[in-house]
Design a protein that fits this description.
By secondary structure, the chain is of the alpha/beta class. About 35% of the residues lie in helices and about 15% in strands. It contains 15 helices and 14 strands. The strands form four sheets. An eight-stranded parallel β-barrel has the order 1-2-3-4-5-7-11-12, surrounded by four helices. A two-stranded parallel sheet has the order 6-8. Strands 9-10 form a two-stranded antiparallel ribbon. A hairpin with a 5-residue loop joins strand 9 and strand 10. Helix 3 packs parallel to helix 5. The model has no long low-confidence stretch (mean pLDDT about 95).
Length: about 475
């Protein structure tokens, strides 16, 4: 076996999100969140995009988040499975509405605090470091109805209070924090990304970028608070990553790809560098955007993150002629189909070298440690007659991407850790399906919510256990 090139303290584990795993959507004093309003089926996309107001639940629809995989009641069993694989880190999120059911209270919900203390203590018992996202695609619905969510400046104050409450309540249990999950998704899926719903006369670009400003201020403020509460706290930002390749060497295509990259990297440019990048002046002028800033905002933004975390599933392609007809609708971030790579069952391009390219670009740009906090293959898994799930396609995908990450480390990039997405099967954020599975552990539940919720180890479970035990040296 080759010698590991991963650092000795490299963190190996998996990732999940409260809204896709916990269920128990009204238990323990929890309030409704944006994700609780997003149905499975034909209306899902319109609601996610903020085009259809969904402020009340309907009897004729199925909402996957309401029960999800019941991690709320089964976390001890699930964390034990992760420990069996050898996890040294578990990325999860706190549901804001478990701590503040409405989002704007002064006093937190004691049951919510107690639940997450129990989860983090369970992790610690097994030698697993929690990596915790404060806002992973869930905004309390009260804040959406009463304030218009992140279009409203008051959200900064509510989020800062929520963040401080978490940093203080879980001090000594959690030292790795992320502020907003895939913050750039706000531009592509405004309701699921940031609780935004559009009115008829809105300049949607203005609304989105003003909301982005409020999130960026809130993130910087939270970073400052985290360091005040405990200087050992490390705070990261989180990007939905993946470079755009030019469709051809035509200069217009190269420029289109650069613009698309900037659109996604804009948020991280602010969070990692501490100021708005110079290219936004022209961008805002051409889109008719005037960002309302308050005195002191520029100073707050200087509280930059300690590390840059990101998800990577696929690279993307851009051309000057991109339009609704020729872009791949499989993912919320639009892309032309790359003929040089294969695609998953859901049309996502499989491009391990693209991960190395993305990591090199990001480290060149930010010079901060990187943390790959989402990566994985959504696929349909079949149980054979022996009760086994032989997911060799998932093992192959992960092997190639871990190898590419190893190459990036050889390139000189400091990488803190790796948490594969959906380490236990959970509800897909994009489609609301259970059949789009990512996990090392199979959960008996279908797209309509039927099943026993029983957990079964897949072939990839044993493979990943071996990867971790060898610190990434044994990928066979």
């Amino acid at each position: 076996m080759a010698e590991s090139i991963f650092p000795a303290d490299f963190l190996w584990g998996g990732a999940l999100a409260a809204n896709q795993a916990e269920g128990a959507y009204l238990e323990g004093g929890k309030g409704l969140t944006t994700v609780d309003m997003i149905p499975h089926g034909k209306d899902r996309l319109a609601v996610k995009l903020g085009q259809e107001k969904r402020f009340a639940l309907r009897d004729d629809e199925f909402y996957p988040s309401h029960q999800a995989i019941d991690f709320y009641h089964r976390y001890k069993e699930d964390i034990a499975l992760m420990a069996e694989m050898g996890f040294t880190v578990l990325r999860t999120s706190i549901a804001w509405s478990r701590i503040f059911p409405n989002g704007d209270e002064q006093q937190p919900n004691a049951q919510g605090i107690a639940f997450y203390r129990d989860v983090f203590n369970e992790c610690k018992k097994h030698g697993i470091e929690p990596l915790v996202t404060l806002c992973h695609f869930d905004v309390p619905m009260h804040l959406v109805r009463e304030y218009g969510s992140w279009r409203n400046r008051k959200m900064v104050e509510f989020f800062a209070h929520y963040a401080r409450t978490c940093f203080e309540a879980f001090d000594g249990l959690v030292k790795y924090w992320l502020t907003f999950n895939e913050i750039n998704i706000l531009l592509h899926s405004p309701f699921s990304g940031a609780g935004l719903v559009f009115e008829k006369d809105d300049n949607q670009e203005q609304v989105k970028y003003q909301a982005a400003h409020h999130e960026l201020i809130a993130s910087a403020w939270a970073t400052k608070i985290a360091h005040e509460v405990n200087p050992a706290n490390q705070v990261g930002c989180m990007l939905a990553g993946g470079n755009f390749y030019p469709w051809s060497c035509k200069p217009q295509d190269v420029w289109a790809a650069l613009e698309k990259d900037r659109e996604n990297l804009f948020f991280i440019d602010v969070q990692a560098r501490g100021a708005y990048p110079s290219y936004t002046r022209r961008l805002f002028k051409e889109k008719g955007i005037a960002i309302a800033m308050e005195p002191g905002d520029a100073e707050i933004l200087k509280n930059t993150v300690d590390f840059v975390s990101f998800s990577y599933y696929a690279s993307r392609c851009a051309s000057a002629e991109m339009n609704e007809q020729n872009t791949n609708a499989a993912n919320i971030v639009k892309s032309l189909k790359n003929p040089h790579i294969q695609a998953s069952e859901w049309g996502w391009g499989i491009d391990p070298l693209g991960l190395r390219i993305t990591m090199n670009m990001m480290y060149d740009r930010y010079q901060k440690p990187l943390f790959l906090v989402e990566n994985g293959l959504g696929a349909k898994d079949e149980i054979n007659a022996q009760g086994e799930i032989n997911d060799d396609y998932r093992i192959s995908y992960l092997r190639e991407h871990i190898s590419a990450m190893a190459e990036a480390i050889e390139d000189g990039i400091p990488v803190m850790g790796y948490t594969s997405w959906g380490c236990i099967d959970l509800v897909s954020a994009s489609t609301g399906e259970m059949s789009k599975r990512y996990g090392f552990v199979y959960v008996d539940r279908d797209d309509r919510g039927n099943g026993t919720l029983a957990r079964t180890r897949k072939k990839s479970f044993w493979w990943y256990k071996k990867v971790i035990a060898s610190n990434g040296a044994d990928l066979e």
